[in-house]
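Homework help board

Subject: predicted structure for assignment chain

Our instructor gave us this sequence and asked us to write out the predicted structure in token form, then describe one feature. I got the tokens but I'm not sure how to describe them. Can anyone check?
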Amino acid sequence: MKSGNCTCCNRWTKLTRHHIHKRFVWGENTDIVLLCRYCHDRVERIVSRKENEILRSYPNLGKDAMEELLRKQNDTRRNANKHGKRD
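My token output:
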């Protein structure tokens, strides 16, 4: 961890790397800002709140995902049965 000025509060301290585009969503990327731990935690809380707001606007998301999974499983079984394969 290197020290420097936080991009957000400009305080001189140890800095953390914050990926602006989440790696688990967008993959590895170089969109990074250096933040102190306090500002990094604040940004993560804001992002989490925004993600939850988005998810709340799709109340059927979990149900739709489950239906999609079941549809795919049924399609796979049908295709396997067409070709003489069994589960």
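Reply (TA_rk): Your tokens look well-formed. For the description, you could write something like this. The chain is about 55% helix and 15% strand. That's the kind of observation they're looking for.
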